[in-house]
Q: What sequence folds into this?
């Protein structure tokens, strides 16, 4: 069975705004997007979001490694041998 | 007449001995055949056992290697999160945003773009796709007029002003 196809992710643009450039940002944002409507995150929430994504990435990678482990485990030791795991050969005899 | 009886007696004795000898020979041969057959079966059993032991040893070694590799890979998968956590602990994003919002924005966008590409690569995709047009690599000496030379590039986000970005997270 083949692996699932890779994820397709879209780029995301982050704007960093402080009080000093807030008016300028709103003006530029309106010029760029037409309307002034955006999602704002505090720095703490941005950090949490970044850490959450990192945690998901860790899970994906570890899950992949476990799949690779099992794939390697069921491969026969001798590549010329029958396509049967060694442990099953031993137990059946 | 006595001689005839004696002869019959002697022949009887000899016949008994001959029959006994034949019986002993036959039973011995049968025992030898059984033992030979048992020996052959035992040899096969020993050979099978030796092969099983050999296979088990090879299996054990293989699983030890796989386990060792798995532990290493699992630990390696923790690296990005640990590195990010350490970086966030060292930085004060609020102060950085107050001091220089644009630089921080560039760093964040660069790190985000790199993260997406990293995840795409982790799942078997092509993580080397180009950065979006609104992201530009950090130039050694950026000048104010540099952005005008970028007008012929394809832009996915309308009227976006590119941010200087460092892909180092």
A:
């Amino acid at each position: 069975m083949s692996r699932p196809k890779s994820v397709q992710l879209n780029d995301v643009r982050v704007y960093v705004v402080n009080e000093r450039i807030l008016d300028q940002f709103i003006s530029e944002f309106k010029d760029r997007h037409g309307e002034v409507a955006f999602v704002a995150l505090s720095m703490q929430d941005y950090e949490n979001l970044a850490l959450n994504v990192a945690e998901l990435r860790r899970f994906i990678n570890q899950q992949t490694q476990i799949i690779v482990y099992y794939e390697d485990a069921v491969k026969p030791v001798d590549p010329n041998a029958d396509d049967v795991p060694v442990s099953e050969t031993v137990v059946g005899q | 007449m006595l001689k005839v009886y004696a002869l019959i007696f002697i022949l009887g004795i000899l016949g008994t001995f001959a029959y006994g000898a034949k019986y002993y020979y036959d039973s011995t041969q049968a025992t030898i055949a059984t033992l030979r057959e048992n020996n052959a079966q035992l040899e096969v059993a020993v050979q099978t056992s030796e092969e099983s032991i050999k296979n088990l040893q090879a299996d054990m070694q293989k699983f030890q290697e796989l386990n060792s590799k798995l532990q290493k890979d699992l630990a390696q998968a923790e690296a990005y999160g640990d590195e990010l956590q350490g970086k966030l602990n060292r930085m004060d994003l609020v102060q950085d945003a107050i001091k220089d919002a644009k630089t921080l924005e560039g760093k964040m966008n660069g790190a985000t773009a790199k993260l997406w590409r990293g995840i795409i690569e982790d799942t078997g995709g092509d993580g080397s796709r180009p950065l979006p047009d609104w992201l530009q690599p950090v130039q050694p000496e950026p000048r104010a007029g540099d952005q005008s030379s970028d007008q012929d590039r394809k832009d996915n986000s309308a009227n976006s002003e590119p941010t200087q970005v460092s892909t180092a997270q």
About this structure: Residues 44-76 of chain A form one domain. Chain A has a mean pLDDT of 86.
